[in-house]
């Protein structure tokens, strides 16, 4: 902040506010001094307890990244980089922390909401709040100016329609007929044990017990990390048909050691992200389309809209089928949640409609056995 005489009988006071240079002209030096002092008092009172009143948002976000986000999973880090580089940073990096008023952040939210999907906006607001919360904890801000921001309402998730066991067997059998035993068994583990794909890719033969699978690690971007999504290992009960096929697959794999991955790449290592993407689209997706799971989608190519056929299911859909099997068997909700690695709240949010509309209670294992016979007969 400063003031100066710009012409005879006119004084100008200059200060910075909202990331922009501001100025106001007054008629005398005394008025200029009073206005300048007023702006300084306002700034000083606002940041009387902070040690870093002139730090930019960019510097704070870099400090938070180095100190708090270094241990995040690679995919999460990639998302955060994209949000900071493309959505948050271009608007806020140049502001000093004292300039980040609720009004400025409200304008930012309005601006990005015009061109960004609501789910991405929700994640960006959450990330911004987190960064500014650390600024408060580190005594660089007196309070979080983003605390008031209202995130867009989460869109209702379409009700899950689990695949029937017979369809999972049809997928696995089709993959076997192409000579791809690994993909067939992977499909069975996703559908009849309910593992997340990243958990299945991290399984070793040492995780296979007589009738259970020990789930305690996951793969991200080609690297195996300890722990599951919720941080808790779990033991998943294997249905008899799955246990039998897994044992056969082990024999055909040459009796690998306990440390060997169940689903390795051609070089024995865990899948890279491009391996996962290619398998989902070219192998699993092609098999899904071959048995009738298709939908019409659109895309823009050279300025025109094209329609194309794509698979209407993904490997993750198979996990929902396992949940449905356990619920229809009448297993307690707490048991189902533990088998899936969910909290009770997530279980209710995701599968509440299945729980409310259960049909005839039947054994999951018997249902899978009967479906296997039906799939072979078909």
Tally of DSSP helical segments: 14
Largest sheet: 3 strands, antiparallel
The strand count comes to 9
Low-confidence stretches: none
Q: How far is it from the N-terminal to the C-terminal residue, by CA? A: 81 Å
Largest sheet: spatial strand order: 1-2-3
User: What fraction strand?
Assistant: 5-15%
Mean pLDDT across residues:
87
Walkthrough of the structure:
The protein has 14 helices and nine strands. The chain has helices at 29-46, 57-68, 74-92, 102-113, 118-137, 165-177, 181-192, 197-200, 240-252, 273-290, 317-329, 333-340, 344-356, 364-377, and strands at 2-7, 10-17, 20-26, 212-215, 217-220, 223-226, 234-237, 294-301, 304-311. A hairpin with a 2-residue loop joins strand 2 (10-17) and strand 3 (20-26). The mean pLDDT is 87. It has a three-stranded antiparallel β-sheet with strand order 1-2-3, covered by helices on one side. The chain is 50% helix and 14% strand. 29% of the residues are buried. Helix 3 (74-92) crosses helix 5. It is α+β, with helices and mostly antiparallel strands.
């Amino acid at each position: 902040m400063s003031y100066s005489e710009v012409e005879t009988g006119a004084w100008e006071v200059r200060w910075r506010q909202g990331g922009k240079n501001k100025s106001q002209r007054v008629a005398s030096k005394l008025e200029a001094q009073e206005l300048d002092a007023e702006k300084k008092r306002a700034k000083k009172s606002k940041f009387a307890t902070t040690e870093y009143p002139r730090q930019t948002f960019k510097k704070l976000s870099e400090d938070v990244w180095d100190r708090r986000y270094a241990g995040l999973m690679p995919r999460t880090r990639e998302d955060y980089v994209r949000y900071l580089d493309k959505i948050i940073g271009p608007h806020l990096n140049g502001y000093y922390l004292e300039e980040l008023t609720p009004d400025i952040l409200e304008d930012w939210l309005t601006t990005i909401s015009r061109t960004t999907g609501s789910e991405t906006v929700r994640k960006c607001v959450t990330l911004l709040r987190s960064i500014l919360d650390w600024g408060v904890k580190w005594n660089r801000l007196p309070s979080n100016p983003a605390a008031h921001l209202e995130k867009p309402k989460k869109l209702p998730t379409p009700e899950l329609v689990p695949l029937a066991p017979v369809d999972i067997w049809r997928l696995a059998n089709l993959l076997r007929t192409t000579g791809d035993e690994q993909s067939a068994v992977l499909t069975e583990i996703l559908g009849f044990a309910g593992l997340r794909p990243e958990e299945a890719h991290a399984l070793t033969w040492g995780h296979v017990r007589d009738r259970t699978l020990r789930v305690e690690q996951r793969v991200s971007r080609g690297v195996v990390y300890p722990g599951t999504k919720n941080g808790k290992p779990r033991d998943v009960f294997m249905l008899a048909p799955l246990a039998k096929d897994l044992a056969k697959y082990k024999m055909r794999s040459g009796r690998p050691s306990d440390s060997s991955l169940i689903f390795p790449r051609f070089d024995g290592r865990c899948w890279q992200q491009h391996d996962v993407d290619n398998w989902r689209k070219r192998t699993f997706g092609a098999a899904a389309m071959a048995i009738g799971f298709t939908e019409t989608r659109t895309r823009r190519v050279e300025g025109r809209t094209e329609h194309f056929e794509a698979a209407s299911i993904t490997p993750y859909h198979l996990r929902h089928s396992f949940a449905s099997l356990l619920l229809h068997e009448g297993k307690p909700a707490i048991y189902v949640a533990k088998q899936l690695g969910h909290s009770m709240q997530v279980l209710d949010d995701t599968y509440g409609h299945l729980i409310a509309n259960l049909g005839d209670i039947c054994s999951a294992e018997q249902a899978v056995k009967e479906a296997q016979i039906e799939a072979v007969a078909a």
